Amino acid sequence: MFQDILINWAPHETRVAVIEAGAVQEVHLERPLERGIVGNIYLGKVTRVLPGMQSAFIDIGMEKAAFLHVADLFNPASVSKSEGAQDAAVTPIEKQVFEGQTLLVQVIKDPIGTKGARLTTQISIAGRMLVFLPQDRHVGVSQKIAQPLRDALRDRLDRLANEFMGQDRVGGFILRTNAEDATDDDIRKDLRYLQATWENIRQLAQTRAPKSLIHADLNLMQRVLRDMVVEATQSIRIDSREQHQSLLQFARDVMPDTVSLIQHYQGERPIFDLFSVEEEIIRALGRRVPLKSGGYLIIEQTEALTTIDVNTGGFVGRKSFEETIYKTNLEAAGAIARQLRLRNLGGIIVADFIDMQQSEHQQAVLEELKKHLLRDRVKTMVSGFSELGLLELTRKRTRESLMHVMCDACPACKGTGVVKTPRTVVYDILREILREARQFNPRQFRVIASPQVIDLLSEEEGAHLAALGEFIGKPIQLQAEVGMMPDAFEVVLL
């Protein structure tokens, strides 16, 4: 399946859309003032060690302290060629780090919600073909490469690394999926780039003050070349002449095989209008996703998990009701896989497909979902259907979802999705007036609320308001405030 990548650049924001089969599959945004920090390397300072949680909080110069678990702590004393770094988790964290200590740490998860960034001391630097592990001699191969090729590729990488760095080299490597057909020259170029990058990091770590940024990951446009280009990619179009030249230079220096793909888009229409990307972004921020058959998905995001509900809608089918359900669920499986990528949904995802009576239908829907997920670069684990007909997925989450990047919680409903009705607010006001009248003795009360609430108080609920005023023996004035939230109000004592 051919792939096109569109890059829309502006000084305040870079946007990338991945197009497959003429449809938008992924959207990525990067804003200089809100740029993610995954992959960044800092000289952190330990501020607190928590033996009970086997973790530590690290100050990396950000608003929230970052989190380091013992499983992500590299312990050189426990590493050997045969055993690797797994024994590091056996040693309690309080015996490995102490408050005030400086550590070279790398961010593996951005701050999300109320949580700070998650860190590791097991540093890795990604190149085009390889991932460099400067603290280990391990040589590995991506799990996505078929098993029969792994041993040969591992031996080849080990030979080239020894040839480039010597038999007593320091550092290990992992061969990435897109290096399966790489030439020796391609790998040597990556080795040079990674070695130079690590040497620069080492020098900065010795001279910079604690809490300093030592190495920043590539920007979004550069990561397109490193992470998103695959064999099926036929073009990378960017709408900025200056950034086009900058990206070309980066490609020539680091990833020369991508140079021929990079094009300067000079069309009159905005580049994101080519495949209706703007419309797709708007739809990706909504709850409802229509299906071609007439069915639809309802997607709800919470901090803990995402739920996806499948509905037949107006689709009635041509045969039996069971066949209608089966066809809707099959289409929904492909749509769900696409929405996971498009919205960058992560964590626990529960899909509520329409109940299917036949087990073969369930299995077919499950296989259809897995087939579409194969095109997803982010690791996703899929469980089978539960007894309740629910399907659970877990998708690796390293950055905020598209909705969390582009949207804030509604100030009216505070993210709940609902607000109190005007009548409920009216009754809250009546109770509040009575409560205040029992504690204080003002000359009169003034109620300030939205026009809808004030209208209801003065008309349909006017009798109740008058009865309350007579009961407390105080006049009650009403004041409509156009800018007030639907369920907000003030009771002022005068």
**CATH-derived topology of one domain:** Aminopeptidase
| CATH first level of one domain | Alpha Beta
How does CATH name the architecture of one domain?
Answer: 3-Layer(aba) Sandwich
Q: What's the main sheet like?
A: 6 strands, mixed
Coarse structural class: alpha+beta
Please report which band the strand proportion falls in: under 5%, 5-15%, 15-25%, 25-35%, 35-45% or over 45%.
Answer: 25-35%
Tertiary shape? globular
Major sheet strand order? 16-17-18-19-21-20
Output the number of helix runs.
11
Parts with pLDDT < 50 across at least 5 consecutive residues:
78-89
Count of beta strands:
24
Distance between the termini: 71 Å
Proportion in helices: 25-40%
Question: Using only CA atoms, what is the Rg?
Answer: 29 Å
- The overall average pLDDT, rounded, is 88
Mind sketching the topology for me?
Blueprint: E1 3-10, E2 13-20, E3 23-30, E4 41-50, E5 55-59, E6 66-69, E7 102-109, E8 118-120, E9 125-126, E10 130-133, E11 139-141, H1 147-165, E12 172-175, H2 184-207, E13 212-215, H3 220-228, E14 233-238, H4 241-254, E15 262-264, H5 277-284, E16 288-290, E17 296-301, E18 305-311, H6 321-343, E19 347-352, H7 359-373, E20 380-385, E21 390-395, H8 402-406, H9 422-439, E22 445-449, H10 451-458, H11 462-472, E23 476-480, E24 489-493
Parallel strand pairs: 1-14, 6-8, 11-12, 14-15, 18-19, 22-23
Antiparallel strand pairs: 1-2, 2-3, 4-5, 4-7, 4-13, 5-6, 7-8, 9-10, 10-12, 16-17, 17-18, 19-21, 20-21, 22-24
Structure description:
- This protein has 494 residues and is of the alpha+beta class.
- Among the domains are: 3-34 and 219-277, 2-Layer Sandwich (Nucleotidyltransferase, domain 5), CATH 3.30.420; 287-406, Aminopeptidase (3-Layer(aba) Sandwich); 422-493, Hypothetical Protein Ychn, Chain: A, CATH 3.40.1260.20.
- 31% of the residues lie in helices and 26% in strands.
- The protein is built from eleven helices and 24 strands.
- The chain has helices at 147-165, 184-207, 220-228, 241-254, 277-284, 321-343, 359-373, 402-406, 422-439, 451-458, 462-472; strands at 3-10, 13-20, 23-30, 41-50, 55-59, 66-69, 102-109, 118-120, 125-126, 130-133, 139-141, 172-175, 212-215, 233-238, 262-264, 288-290, 296-301, 305-311, 347-352, 380-385, 390-395, 445-449, 476-480, 489-493.
- α1 crosses α2, α6 packs parallel to α7 and α9 runs parallel beside α11 (462-472).
